[in-house]
Write a structure and sequence with these properties.
alpha/beta; Elongation Factor Tu (Ef-tu), domain 3; Rossmann fold; 6-stranded antiparallel β-sheet; 5-stranded parallel β-sheet; binds adenosine-2'-5'-diphosphate
Length: 260
């Protein structure tokens, strides 16, 4: 089988802010992935370009969906997103054939509460996982935290949570199980502050009514910038959680969200 990316059709595009947008593309029938994994996305070469520029993107749609959804940042001089942000319905997007990643349920040991810590577009893999019935079959509580600078940047996540309540597949399962905590760092909001500060101060646990994290009960997935991941991972280790992988599952897993 060829290793070349497949050519997919853009089905929809939605812009949230001048920095954020979502798009959906067709899904080849041979394309299988586990919720939380990422793929390489690119655009057909333009004149003068030797190779297509491909970048890692978490699939935001659940593994059972017909379309593939992605949530992206726009960077004016970004090698890919400067062009990608201009795509329209009917355009062609390149999709790699092999999804990979560690933000998957199988990389964690069984537990009671699953924390998903995200900043910015780092919410994308969790958009997939919170629409997967398997997540609710494995955990009693799922806590999705999303921290951004400004309120407009929370829209994608808010919309997702609203829709999920009426979802025919997981709507009933999320009831009382899924907690969505949004925090802002540069605008007034019911909860302000970086997630790392809220973990350190205990404010997070007071807000959601749970005990501080413990290795025997709590599991975590972290997705954001490199600094955010490093800082949050350090805190997980202080609670006694160990970093897991596909080959050696443990108590928390990390993945960097793509920028550029
Ligand atoms: P802050 O506004 O204090 O920098 P960005 O848009 O730069 O990717 O940031 C997204 C969110 O992640 C912002 O709210 C930002 O807070 C927060 N953030 C940035 N660095 C860290 C970090 N090292 N630990 C936790 N949160 C972070």
């Amino acid at each position: 089988m060829s290793n070349l990316p497949t050519e997919e059709t853009v089905l929809s595009v939605e812009h949230y802010t001048d920095r954020l947008f979502k798009f959906t593309i067709s899904r080849p029938s041979s394309f299988r992935f586990r919720s939380g994994e990422f793929v390489m996305i690119g655009l057909p070469k333009i004149e003068g370009q030797k190779k297509s520029i491909m970048r890692a993107y978490s699939v935001a749609s659940p593994s059972w969906a017909d379309e593939l959804e992605f949530y992206s940042i726009k960077v004016a001089d970004g090698p890919l997103t400067s062009r990608l942000q201009k795509i329209k319905k009917g355009d062609t997007v390149l999709l790699s054939r092999k999804p990979v990643g560690t933000l998957v349920l199988d990389a964690l040991l069984p537990g009671k509460n699953l924390y998903m810590f995200s900043t910015g577009t780092g919410i994308a893999p969790f958009a997939s996982l919170i629409r997967d019935p398997d997540t609710y079959e494995r955990y009693e509580r799922v806590i999705l935290t999303h921290t951004c600078r400004q309120k407009a940047e929370l829209s994608y996540g808010m919309q997702l949570i609203e829709k999920i309540k009426n979802d025919p597949l997981v709507g009933d399962m999320v009831n009382g199980k899924l907690l969505h905590l949004t925090t802002l760092t540069r605008e007034e909001h019911p909860v302000n502050g970086r997630i790392t500060d809220l973990i350190k101060s205990g404010g997070l646990f007071r807000e959601i009514g749970l005990h501080e994290m413990r290795a025997d009960k709590d599991r975590a997935m972290i997705c954001g910038s490199k600094d955010m991941i490093d800082d949050t991972a350090k805190l997980m280790k202080q609670f006694g959680l160990r970093e897991g992988s596909n080959s050696i599952p443990a108590e928390f897993v990390i993945e960097k969200s793509f920028v550029g």
